[in-house]
Amino acid sequence: MLERKLRREALRIFRAALHASDPVSAVNRRVRVTGSVLVAGNRKYPLDSFRRIFLTGAGKASAAMALAMERMLGRRITDGWVNVKYHHLAKVRRVRLHECGHPVPDEAGVEGAGRIARMMREAGPQDLVIYLGSGGGSALMPAPAPPVTLEEKQAVTRLLLASGANIHEVNAVRKHISLLKGGQLARLAQPATVLALLLSDVIGDDLDVIGSGPTAPDASTFGSARAVLEKYGLLGRAPRAVIHRIEAGLRGEIPETPKQGEKLFETVQNLVVGSNALAVEAAAAEARRLGFRPLVLSTLIEGETREVARVHAAIAREVLLSGRPAKPPVCLISGGETTVTLRGSGLGGRNQEFVLAAAIDLAGAGNVVVLSGGTDGTDGPTDAAGAVADGRTLSRAAGLRLDAAGMLANNDSYRFFEPLGDLVKTGPTNTNVMDVRLVLVGN
After folding, report:
1. DSSP secondary-structure letter at 238?
2. What's domain 23-274's superfamily in CATH?
3. At the top level of CATH, which class does the domain 2-14+277-441 belong to?
4. How many CB atoms are located within 10 Å of the residue 128 CB?
5. Max alpha carbon distance in the chain (Å)?
6. pLDDT per residue over 341-396, tens digit each?
7. CA count, 13 A, side-chain hemisphere, 93
8. What span, in angstroms and rounded, lies between the C-alpha atoms of 49 and 31?
9. Rounded to an integer, what distance in angstroms lies between the CA atom of residue 76 and that of residue 3?
10. N or C, which end of the chain has less CB nearby within 10 Å?
């Protein structure tokens, strides 16, 4: 009975985190229109001084962000085009939402990126470009740089994702085989004024990593892109055109991505309107309201998923055993984004794998529930945001002849939790601020 109650409370806490990361609310907190002036952060934009206003962007949350800006600017918007993940839509009127593939880019994404590039080239010195960026923007705005083709970009993306490379490393490579990423969209829009509103899905909210930073100075180089491929043993496996382009860049035959201090960024503002920290803070507030002692471990968690899960499980066991670092009832909370190194051929995602690994270490423990979910509502190539488990999960699984250890080894967490009814399904949330992990320890 207590575990059922803890499960319900874990779901309520997770929903509170999702509500706090709503993109419309995030935009409205940082941006407003007062009279004929657009105020974004600490900067003001007199709207009557601009001849045209272009609204563009790419990301899982960008449709909802476009809706927020439409409500503010209305007929002032001259033209709008935003690339979004399939089915991640909003009821906009003045902006075209173009559905594309994610996490692996597709031809629709290339078409949309071309349309965005044409809009940027059209912008002039009296125009305002508002870019709406969020998680997924890198895959959703693919503009392969010759001689790299879409198929070759897809191939290297798959290799990087399967290798366990983190988002910083993946984007370092993608920026250097792209025409828009790594500040290149801002360079293309020159000499227009550019305002980028960003919903962060990366640890540390690094501007050059969110959606591969199309409007931000790029800290990575052709050299760091090559180092990533070398680190994961991909120099001999990545498509030849990808290697040739990176090598050409190293020889100085191709211009580097724009860097900090370049003149073009004098008319560019990058403003983070929401992040994982907001979701985690909301989770902590809801946990406190439900009677738990919230303990935020970190919003900067990264690393191999199953190892991170073992650390969370160990802390939960310590709470049960000694009341350290806090006495029950406790809600351990963490944010960030872990990675999965694919070793098997199963179906799952990093959040489901986290819960399965934690459930193995918590087997037999009473009054403990663990939940992990992606705020975008999709975990890996599945229709689940994540999963939930408790100390009885492995015994229930054994009754269904489910081998927890074997399925973890095969990266098959989805098929483990599906027959147990323990998948967390939210559907597309139209937001993306990484993951929220919860471990509830009851009295």
Report:
1. S
2. Glycerate kinase, MOFRL-like N-terminal domain (3.40.50.10180)
3. alpha beta
4. 24
5. 69
6. 999 999 999 999 999 999 999 999 999 999 999 999 999 999 999 999 999 999 99
7. 8
8. 18
9. 53
10. N
Distance (Å, whole) CA 159 – CA 264: 34
Start-end of CATH 3.40.50.10180 domains in the chain: 23-274
Do residues 82 and 97 make contact, with C-beta atoms less than 8 angstroms apart?
yes
Q: Which residue has the tokens 């939790």?
A: 417
The whole model's pTM is what? 0.88
User: Which SS3 state, helix, strand or coil, does residue 10 take?
Assistant: helix
CB-count burial class (<10 Å; 0-12, 13-18, 19+) for 118: exposed
- In one-letter notation, the amino acid at residue 1 is M
Residues 156 and 143 sit within 8 Å (Cβ to Cβ): no
**CA angle 353-384-166, nearest 5°?**
50
Vertex 172, ends 238 and 309: CA angle to 5°?
90
184 closest CA partner among 131, 126, 134, 223? 131
Contact 437, 295 (CB under 8 A): no
Residue 252, beta-bridge partner list: none
Tens digit of pLDDT for each residue in 31-72?
A: 999 999 999 999 999 999 999 999 999 999 999 999 999 999
- The two tokens of residue 439 are 């471990």
Question: What is the identity of the amino acid at 6?
Answer: L
Residues of the chain with CATH 3.40.1480.10: 2-14+277-441
Q: Is the pLDDT of residue 1 over 70?
A: no
77, 129 Cβ separation under 8 angstroms: no
Q: How far is CA 52 from CA 108, 120, 123, 272, 339, in A?
A: 27, 12, 8, 24, 42
130: β partners: 55, 195
| Collapsed DSSP state (helix, strand, coil) of residue 194 | strand
Contact yes or no for 120/128 (Cβ under 8 A): no
Which are the contacts of 336, defined by CB distance < 8 A and separation ≥ 6?
Answer: 203, 276, 298, 299, 300, 301, 302, 434, 435
DSSP string for 296-354 = EEEEEE-SBHHHHHHHHHHHHHHHHHH--SSPSSEEEEEEE--B----SS----HHHHH
Phi-psi region of 401 (alpha: psi -120 to 50; beta: other; left: phi over 0): left
